[in-house]
Specification:
Shape: elongated
Number of helices: 4
Strand order of the largest sheet: 7-6-11-12-13
Oligomer: single chain
Distance between the termini: 90 Å
Number of strands: 13
Order of helices and strands: HHEHEEEEEEEEEEEEH
Number of domains: 1
Structural class: alpha+beta
Helix content: 25-40%
């Protein structure tokens, strides 16, 4: 006959299964709150139109504002501010915006300031969705990366180039020849 030891030095199979189940349940609650899909989305200049369109609220504005260009907000119907819950990788301090003027010349322009609670804030970047299912159309120069971004209407793909003249030519052809849209 084999003697039975009274000192138990290991776990039973049932105890191990119970611990694994408890850990799985705890992870499902904690993991979901930490790793939500919305927290994993990163807004960049290249994907800003697609993210804005995915929100499907018209009209809509994405604004980076403040003296340091660090405050961000989505504005629905220009009245309901909703704080940005995504990671934003846009250095708005280093952005210049260009648009065609009345004479067909490409000029640098400033975004219109934003009134927030009885004070006026400088807007560093503004991207708008309009009622007619279109969006802002202009050229952005990111001075830090030395890249130029062409924001085209109707959610066409954002073009990126290191050459201002190449982007300017594409923008000019679309602005003056709307059939290509």
């Amino acid at each position: 006959m084999i003697p039975v030891s009274k000192n138990r030095n290991s776990f039973t199979l049932i105890e191990l299964i119970l611990v694994i189940m408890i850990m799985g349940i705890a992870y499902s609650f904690i993991g979901n709150s930490l790793f939500k899909k919305e927290n994993s989305i990163v807004i960049k200049l290249k994907n800003l139109p697609q993210i804005a369109r995915s929100l499907e609220k018209k009209p809509l504005e994405f604004i980076i504002y403040g003296r340091d260009c660090q405050k961000m907000v989505w504005l629905y119907n220009k009245t309901e501010p909703v704080e940005v819950k995504y990671k934003v990788k846009i250095n708005a301090k280093n952005i210049k915006a260009y648009k065609f003027n009345f004479y067909g010349e490409l000029d640098e322009f400033q975004f219109q300031d934003l009134r927030v609670e009885n004070r006026v804030e400088q807007v560093c970047l503004r991207f708008e969705l309009f009622k007619n299912n279109s969006n802002s159309s202009y050229i952005l120069e990111d001075k830090s990366s030395e890249l130029f971004y062409l924001f085209r209407p109707y959610f066409k793909r954002v073009e990126i180039s290191k050459s201002f003249s190449e982007i300017e030519e594409q923008f000019l052809s679309e602005e003056l020849n709307p059939e290509t849209l």
